[in-house]
Amino acid sequence: MRKAMFILLPLLMAACASPTPGIMEKNLPGASPNRFTYCTGYGCTIPWTVQLAADEWSEITVPLKTSASSAEAERRLIAQTVALFEQTVGPKTKTTEDEAGATVFSFSSKRGQLDCIDESHNTATLLHFLEADGLLHWHRVGPVAHRGMILDRWFHNTAVVIENASGDAYVIDSWFGLNGELADVQPLSVWKEGWHPEGFFNGVTKEERTAGRKAAQQNQQPTTAAGSE
Fold this sequence. Notes:
Layout lengths: L1 H15 L3 H8 L8 E3 L9 E3 L3 H7 L10 H23 L22 H17 L6 E9 L8 E8 L5 E5 L10 E4 H5 L13 H12 L12
Antiparallel strand pairs: 1-2, 3-4, 4-5, 5-6
């Protein structure tokens, strides 16, 4: 029994433990949209060096070029920007078919699939670029958040923004959706309690995930002009 737990424990931790800050410390210094590391393959085992042309970066940041009228509106625009970022980078990194979520165990690197370590690294990298370009007016980038213990729920990581006025933290979680879908935005306190999109769980087919996420995201789309309530 002890031997089995000794073998299982590292696998559980590898599923989505939290080395993201260490990977960020290695990859973020000196990075810019012109040249940065995009993590794939579970735990950044397959990193890509990505270079975005000026026009590509300009298209990605369109949602945030009109200042949001509130912090809540800006969070919605950030979610849209994450989607555009993934849509642009996907063909460059062979991740256009990245499925929603990720299988808990990966006994070998999975090309084109991202776990929450990869997702949190990539989204946090984008957020730092947005902040550096002065495109975040209501928020600043927070540290990557982590939840889960072996005894209560699976490990999970996410990028975070902090509202300037209130100091409240919100997750920008791109793991639950398919590549290029809107990131999920939730208060960090709610996310810490195990939040996930309604009806989501690992193990369903890609088609089932796609149908469920499309329905859910209809409710996230702003109904008025970008940047307004």
